[in-house]
C-alpha cells in the first residue's frame, strides 16, 4: 500500500533521493492521474504521465516547437505506428532532434515540478529501474527542481506545522549547491547561519520576512540538505511556555471536537466569522486553526484517541476552507445553506465509496471468470460513479467474455478511449474483442494503436506478433487479461 501525500509529500521523497543518491522509480497516483519519476544515482533521468497537458505533444505545442496544425495532426500521424511519438515527429520533419531533446527535458521537469502542487493521492517507490532507451535518459539535477518547485509547494502549511516549534541548524553550503541558488537565497542562508541552533519562531521574529516567504526558504534549504530542524535545547522559560501552549491547544481541540459532534456547525460559525468576512479574514483564520489543530502537531507518539479527534476536526476545517475560499462554492453555500450542501457531499461520498467497494468485488469475480456477475456489479458501479475510465474498462472486459454482450462491450471500450485517449488498455481490449470475432484486420489495427501509445505493451506485442507472423516469443499479459 502506498503512502498518502497528505502525510508524506513527494518533495520529502525527492530529498531522500538526492541525499542518498538513490536509483529507482517513484509512482504517484491520484483519482485521475498517475505519474512516474525515474532516478539514477540521485539524478532525475526520465518521467511519464497520463495527464493530458503534460503529454509530449501538448508540451511541444506550448513551448512553440510545433504549431497548432501539427498538434492536431499528431494523433493521425501516430496511428498504427510502433515507434515512440518523439521519433515519429522527427522522422516526419515536425521537429528536429535537438527540439525533441529540449521538449523531452521540458516535459520531465514539468512532471517533476507538478509534484510540489499535489496534496492528495499516494506514492510508492521501487528500488529497481526499468530499461529506458538511451536517447530518453537525462541527467536533471534535483537541486534545480527544488529551487523552482518550492514556490508551488502545496504542503507548506504541513511543513511549517511540523517544524515551527523546533530550532534550526544550518550545514555547510557547497559550491555545487550554491550554484543553483539566487543571490537573495544565499543572503537568507547566511542570515540563518548566523542564527543556527536558535528557535525557529525567534529567528522568524528577528528576520522580519513575510511568513510564507520565510517558510519557502526554510523548505528549500531543508530539501537541499543544508538545513535541518532539531529539538530545542532543554531549559526553563521558552520550553515550559511551549508545553503550556500545547496543553491549551489540546484543550481547545477537545472543546471544538465536542461542539462539532454535538451539532452540525455552520462553516462561518466554525471559523467564528460573519458571513460578510473577506477572503483574507477567512484565510487568516484557517491559517491560525491549522497552526493549532493540525494532527501532526500531536506528535507521532500521541495516543490514538487524540490523533483521531485531531483528524476529525482538521477534516472539518479543511472542508470549510475549501468552500469559503472558493468564490463559486461560497456563493452556492450562501444560497443553499449548510445542511443541503453537507447532505449532497455525504450522498456523493457514499456513492463513490460504494462504487469503489463494488469495483474491487467485481475485479475478484472477473479473476474467477464469473463474468456475468462481474458485469452486473460493474453496471451498478457506473450508476453510482459514472466518470472513471477504469470502471468502463472492467465492465467492457467482463462483457466481452459474454457472447451476446460483445457489441455492448465495444461501446464501453470506446467510452474508455473517450475518457483516457492516452490509455493503451482499451485499444488492446478492442483488439482482443475483434480477434475473438474473427475480424483480424480490425484486431490488428487496434493492437497497433495500443502499441503506438505504449510500444512496450506486452499483450498487444504478443497478439500482433502472432497474427502477423512476427516474433513468437512469449510475453506477459495485461493485468485484466484472463489466463488460459
Low-confidence runs of at least 5 consecutive residues: 236-240, 471-484
Q: Report the span from N to C terminus.
A: 29 Å
Query: Residue-averaged pLDDT, rounded?
Result: 82
Provide the β-strand percentage band: 5-15%
- The share of residues in helices is 55-70%
Structure notes:
The chain is α+β, with helices and mostly antiparallel strands. It has 4 domains: 3-141, no CATH class; 155-230, no CATH class; 247-336, Helix Hairpins, CATH 1.10.287; 358-468, Serine Threonine Protein Phosphatase 5, Tetratricopeptide repeat (Alpha Horseshoe), CATH 1.25.40. It is 60% helix and 7% strand. The chain has 23 helices and 7 strands. It has helices at 10-20, 56-62, 68-78, 85-91, 97-114, 142-149, 156-163, 175-178, 183-193, 200-207, 211-223, 238-262, 267-271, 279-293, 304-324, 327-336, 338-367, 371-384, 389-400, 406-419, 425-436, 440-453, 458-468, and strands at 3-4, 24-29, 34-40, 43-49, 122-126, 167-170, 227-230. It has a 5-stranded antiparallel sheet with strand order 1-5-2-3-4, with helices on one face. A two-stranded antiparallel sheet has the order 6-7. Helix 19 (389-400) runs antiparallel to helix 20. The relative contact order is 0.07.
Amino acid at each position: 500500500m502506498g503512502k498518502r501525500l497528505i502525510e508524506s509529500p513527494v518533495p520529502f521523497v525527492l530529498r531522500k533521493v538526492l541525499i542518498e543518491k538513490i536509483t529507482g522509480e517513484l509512482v504517484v497516483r491520484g483519482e485521475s492521474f498517475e505519474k512516474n519519476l525515474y532516478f539514477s544515482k540521485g539524478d532525475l533521468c526520465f518521467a511519464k504521465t497520463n495527464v493530458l497537458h503534460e503529454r509530449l505533444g501538448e508540451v511541444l505545442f506550448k513551448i512553440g516547437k510545433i504549431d497548432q496544425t501539427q498538434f492536431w495532426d499528431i494523433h493521425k500521424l501516430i496511428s498504427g505506428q510502433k515507434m515512440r511519438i518523439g521519433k515519429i515527429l522527427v522522422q516526419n520533419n515536425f521537429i528536429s532532434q535537438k527540439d525533441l531533446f529540449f521538449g523531452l527535458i521540458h516535459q520531465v521537469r514539468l512532471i517533476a515540478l507538478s509534484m510540489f502542487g499535489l496534496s492528495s493521492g499516494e506514492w510508492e517507490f521501487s528500488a529497481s529501474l526499468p530499461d529506458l532507451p538511451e536517447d530518453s535518459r537525462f541527467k536533471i539535477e534535483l537541486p534545480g527542481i527544488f529551487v523552482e518547485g518550492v514556490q508551488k509547494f502545496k504542503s507548506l502549511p504541513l511543513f511549517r506545522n511540523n517544524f515551527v516549534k523546533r530550532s534550526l541548524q544550518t550545514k555547510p553550503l557547497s559550491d555545487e549547491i550554491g550554484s543553483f541558488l539566487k543571490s537573495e537565497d544565499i543572503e537568507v542562508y547566511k542570515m540563518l547561519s548566523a542564527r543556527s541552533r536558535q528557535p525557529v519562531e525567534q529567528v522568524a521574529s528577528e528576520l522580519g520576512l513575510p511568513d510564507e516567504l520565510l517558510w519557502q526558504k526554510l523548505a528549500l534549504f531543508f530539501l537541499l540538505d543544508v538545513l535541518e530542524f532539531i529539538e530545542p535545547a532543554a531549559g526553563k522559560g521558552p520550553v515550559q511556555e511551549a508545553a503550556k501552549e500545547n496543553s491549551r491547544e489540546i484543550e481547545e481541540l477537545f472543546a471544538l471536537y465536542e461542539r462539532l459532534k454535538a451539532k452540525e456547525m455552520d462553516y462561518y460559525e466554525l471559523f467564528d466569522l460573519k458571513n460578510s468576512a473577506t477572503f483574507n479574514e477567512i484565510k487568516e483564520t484557517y491559517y491560525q486553526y491549522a497552526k493549532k489543530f493540525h494532527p501532526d502537531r500531536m506528535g507521532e507518539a500521541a495516543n490514538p484517541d487524540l490523533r483521531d479527534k485531531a483528524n476529525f476536526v482538521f477534516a472539518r476545517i479543511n472542508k470549510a476552507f475549501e468552500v469559503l475560499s472558493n468564490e463559486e462554492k461560497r456563493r452556492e453555500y450562501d444560497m443553499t445553506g449548510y445542511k443541503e450542501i453537507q447532505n449532497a457531499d455525504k450522498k456523493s461520498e457514499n456513492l463513490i465509496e460504494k462504487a469503489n467497494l463494488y469495483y474491487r468485488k467485481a475485479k475478484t469475480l472477473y479473476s474467477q471468470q464469473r463474468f456475468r456477475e462481474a458485469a452486473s456489479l460493474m453496471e451498478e458501479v457506473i450508476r453510482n460513479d459514472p466518470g472513471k475510465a477504469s470502471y468502463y474498462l472492467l465492465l467492457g472486459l467482463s462483457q466481452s467474455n459474454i457472447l451476446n454482450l460483445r457489441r455492448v462491450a465495444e461501446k464501453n471500450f470506446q467510452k474508455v478511449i473517450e475518457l483516457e485517449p492516452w490509455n493503451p488498455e482499451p485499444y488492446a481490449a478492442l483488439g482482443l474483442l475483434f480477434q475473438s470475432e474473427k475480424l483480424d484486420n480490425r484486431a490488428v489495427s487496434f493492437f497497433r494503436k495500443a502499441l503506438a501509445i505504449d510500444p512496450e505493451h506486452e499483450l498487444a506485442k504478443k497478439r500482433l506478433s502472432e497474427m502477423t507472423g512476427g516474433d513468437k516469443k512469449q510475453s506477459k499479459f495485461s493485468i485484466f487479461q484472463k489466463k488460459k
